[in-house]
Design brief:
Immunoglobulin-like; alpha+beta; 8 strands; 1 helix
Length: about 150
């Protein structure tokens, strides 16, 4: 005589015994998600590239304006000749920058194609063309990189 197959009964007993615990974990997970516990917050400001001119601080606004403070890591005086990228940036007021000197580039409202509201995320390429003289020989260089973060 054959014994009846009892696999189905074992699976059903498992669900009946532990099903309530699985359901509690699912409900707790949904409640925590709804309260924002798993929201990692705002996108951090960060940059990539930019050698040897690096951004110290920046803000990009939802109206399409931007302000970036840069610092020079060059060992000689440089002259900023052009600023461009994804925005129509303005040259700094002082274009001759000393070693370790800081300068600010700006974009007026509407000069950056935002395409997003406040709180959205941006990725903007910035390109700075500059010249310097080594032993009275002029050289032209560029510092290019990307800044990203949330619109302010």
């Amino acid at each position: 005589m054959q014994k009846p197959n009892r696999k189905g009964q074992g699976a059903m007993e498992y669900v009946m015994v532990y099903g309530w615990a699985i359901m509690v974990v699912i409900v707790a997970g949904v409640a925590l998600w709804y309260m924002g516990v798993f929201n990692l917050g705002v996108t951090p400001k960060n940059f990539k590239g930019f050698e040897p001119l690096k951004p110290l601080s920046w803000a990009v606004y939802s109206d399409g304006s931007a302000s970036i403070i840069m610092v020079s890591a060059e060992t000689t005086i440089i002259t900023i000749t052009d600023v461009g990228g994804d925005c129509d940036f303005n040259l700094p007021n002082e274009t001759h920058i000393s070693p370790g000197g800081e300068f600010q580039i700006t974009a007026d409202a509407g000069d950056c194609d935002t395409g997003a509201a406040k709180g959205g995320v941006y990725h903007i390429e910035v390109r700075i063309i500059y010249s310097k003289s080594i032993s009275a020989v002029p050289e032209t260089h560029s510092s290019t990189g990307t800044i990203h973060g949330q619109y302010e």
